[in-house]
Amino acid sequence: MARIKNLCFLLLLVLLSYVSLQAQSVSSLFKSGIKAQENGDYPAAIEYLVKASEKSKDKKWRNQRQYTRSLDKLTEVNITLGRYEDAERTAKILVEITKSKAKGSHKDYASALNSLATVYYETGRYKESEVLYKKTLDIFEKKSERKDPAYPSVIGNLASLYRTMDRNKEAEELYIKALELLRKKKSKQHESYAAALNNLASLYRSTERGEEAETLLIEATEITKNKLGEDHINYAFSIQNLAALYTEMGRFKEAEDFYLKTIEIIKGKLGEDHPSYATFLGNLSALYFTMGRYHEAKPLIEKALEITKNKFGENHVDYALQLSNMGAYYFIISDFNEADQCLTKAAEIQKEQLGEKHSSYIQTISFVAHLYSKMGRDEEAKSLLMKIQLLQEN
Questions:
Q1: Which of 5, 23, 264, 378 has its CA 20 to 30 A from that of 310?
Q2: Which residues are CB-contacts of 333 (< 8 A; sequence separation ≥ 6)?
Q3: Nearest to 329 by CA among 365, 368, 286
């Protein structure tokens, strides 16, 4: 009997040791995935996190907490890479798991909602995104989780959505709130603080507050450079905001240098099929327009259109933006019929996705009105100008 007890005890030790090794393996994979993500090695991060999620989901060694953590980070990396279908799939799994576990009131559930809201935002589903961001904030506030590091980030996400929707006053209030929270946490040298500075600066730039924007952007760029280095995607986003500002200020050489550096980083880190790569190509083409380098601009716009179409289809606001850029190119070379096709299509998308009162739609139809004047279509031009006046008055 003693020998049987000893054998059972040994078997139990072996079993516990094996379970421990399995858990350690999952933990090790997860940590390797996080490290790869922080270093900007996103393909490696995907590989580690997929393995971690698969191992922790295994029926024999299921560890739901580790499984949800792995899925959460996997969703985050997929969003960064622009792999929105994969991100939406894992985010929805997370929402279901955390909702049932916490009865819809835990910060893990809030984190899952935030991820899904971000997918909706990136893919142009703004109303759905707003509902989820607000629900996320409601959970943080009801559970007194305002000290959670994710809370300012979610506020910033909602602010960015409002900025896209032309709700600039609400966006500014939320951006400032996020910054104040980060200041209170003494996070002024943290990359999340730099991101918040970038967000507010981008809003100031678009509302013609260039000096305030430049001050914030220089601070954000220095923090990002010191914390993450000059080959990190966050640094790329920071200097591209400076490039856009310097374009508007007529500092073209500095702007071009920053845009070229940005494109180099994004190409290396995220690839040439990423939506951000398309955006930055479009931005560089706009600079070349301003500098009179029209034929250098065209291939950049064509590539940006191709990427955006493949990623989002032909009914997304990013596709409309690139169509507007192409329309501007055709206008400059006096190919007015092609310009008309591009700009009219862009306006249709913007009207459907953003509404008639959105500044992007008004800007596009203003361009169309100018085009019609050049083409001798005076009545159509006059009709559009009257429409613009009514939209701006109401």
A1: 264
A2: 294
A3: 286
Q: What span, in angstroms and rounded, lies between the C-alpha atoms of 144 and 136?
A: 13
The model's pLDDT over 288-336, given as tens digits with 9 standing for 90+, comes to: 999 999 999 999 999 999 999 999 999 999 999 999 999 999 999 999 9
Measured CA to CA, the distance from residue 202 to residue 238 in angstroms comes to 10
Handedness of CA 70, 32, 123, 197 (dihedral sign): positive
pLDDT digits (tens, 9 = 90+) for 205-223: 989 899 999 999 999 999 9
End-to-end CA distance of the chain: 90
Q: Nearest-5° angle of CA 142, CA 146, CA 148? A: 120
pTM for this predicted structure: 0.84
Task: Give the closest residue to 353 by CA, choosing from 174, 171, 123, 156.
Answer: 123
Are 345 and 327 a contacting pair, CB within 8 Å? no
As a residue count, the chain comes to 394
d(CA 203, CA 185): 23
